[in-house]
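Q: I have 82 residues here and want to know how they pack in 3D. Can you give me a structure?
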Amino acid sequence: MIRTQVQLTEKQARALKALAAARQSTVAGLIRQSIDHLIQQSDVVDDTERRRRAIAAAGRFRSGQADVSVHHDQYLAEAYQA
């Protein structure tokens, strides 16, 4: 783990300590959980996750066109013009 320093207001520190005690956790643990949640909710996606999502989406949708593999550039251009 990497040590970092964060400055909190007194009100934030009190609330975080109380929450940690109520959840039988540590302040550091709650901060790590919060950061993980923030990262998951953000638009920042690493390459591994991007690949996983692309593979999961492959073949799940149908266009109704039989020649998409041949004319994909044309269909893409038409979609952007719409």
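Q: Anything worth noting?
A: The chain has one domain: 1-58. The CA atoms of residues 72 and 79 lie 10 Å apart.
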